Amino acid sequence: MDARTAVKEITQGKISPLYLCYGTEKYQIREFVDKITSRLVEPEQRDMAVVQMDLAETPVELVVEEAETLPFLVERKLVIVQAASMFTAAKEGGKIEHQVDRLLAYLADPAEYSVVVFIAHGEKLDERKKTVKAIKSSGQVIPFMPLGASELVQWVIREAGKRKCSMGQQAAEALISSAGVQMSTLSAEVNKLCLFAGEGGEITADAVAKLVARTTEQNIFGMVEDIANLKLDRALNTFYELLKQKEEPIKIAALIARQFRIMLQIKELGGQSYSQQQIASQLGLHPYAVKIAGEQARKFSRDQLAQSLSRLAELDFKMKSGGIDKVLGIEMFLLSLGA
């Protein structure tokens, strides 16, 4: 089941006694758990009816005991369990021994008066585990993966709408370019922009530029974009701004190299007919970052990217060994791209 269908069922009062939420998007998982909590338990009852547990610290049999214990003064209780190692290939961080058979027995016959939400932060479930097979048979298993590039833009626009502000695609893309792709960060920035615009106001790209500070990584992203468009004066200005912010030149060079490496990898995988989503999964990147880096990569040949990476590797060695002034070395590299 996907998250949208699950939320629709929860809104209609169709709540399963078992959920397994897995994936890399922690913000979406948190929103989903909040949705169940608000639908299941009144705010004044949550101290008694909502229990948080972590299998890195608590044996799973205690989770089962909690779920089997009748709720106090409420119709149903909610048990939220951090449980990555129980359903994924993640290694157990602590030294807790779990009686997995107790969990399997509960999954086969869950209590009607408890809703247990297992949370596993990881890209994949370990399909070999009996626990995964058991919860798929008797509960709802919901993936929470990064939104696609266009989906993320539309999500930002909807977040502004929830706060009674309007935001167009250009402003949403400008926000993602400045703040990055983490949904929790984007939500906080949208909130700030809506406070600035006021109820019924419009958030513009200019407002984003004035109010949202770029992260170092996003500045590097913009610098590479300027390099790709042969706007070397702007790329140098960004570099000087990073220096004013006390960023280390070696770190800046490493981030530039990372972006060129990503562009080369995208170009090679794209040449093998990989889709944008497949490339994102292969490289461990957000689909939006793949989309933008792919657009940048089209402005370079494969040889240009490979040569730039080779020059950056040589520059890194010289900077670390004292063979060249760090600032001068990056300036010379940036200027060489326009030659």
CATH superfamily of the largest domain: P-loop containing nucleotide triphosphate hydrolases
Low-confidence residue ranges:
none
Helix content bin: 55-70%
Strand order of the largest sheet: 2-3-4-1-5
Q: What is the average of the pLDDT values?
A: 89
The description of the largest β-sheet is:
5 strands, parallel
- Strand percentage, roughly? 5-15%
Question: What is the name of the CATH topology of the largest domain?
Answer: Rossmann fold
The gyration radius over C-alpha positions equals 24 Å
Backbone structural class: alpha/beta
Number of helices: 18
Elements, N to C (H/E): HEHHEHEHHEHEHEHHEHHHHHHHH
General form: elongated
Number of structural domains: 3
Tell me what the CATH architecture of the largest domain is.
Answer: 3-Layer(aba) Sandwich
What is the total tally of β strands? 7
How does this structure look, described?
- This protein is an alpha/beta fold.
- The protein folds into 3 domains: 142 residues, P-loop containing nucleotide triphosphate hydrolases (Rossmann fold), CATH 3.40.50; 63 residues, Helicase, Ruva Protein, domain 3; 121 residues, Zinc Finger, Delta Prime, domain 3 (Up-down Bundle), CATH 1.20.272.
- 60% of the residues lie in helices and 10% in strands.
- It contains 18 helices and 7 strands.
- A 5-stranded parallel beta sheet has the order 2-3-4-1-5, with helices on both faces. It has a two-stranded parallel sheet with strand order 6-7.
- Helix 4 links the parallel strand 2 and strand 3.
- Helix 8 packs across helix 9.
- The longest helix has 23 residues.
- It is elongated and about 70 Å long.
- It starts with a helix and ends with a helix.
- 33% of the residues are buried.
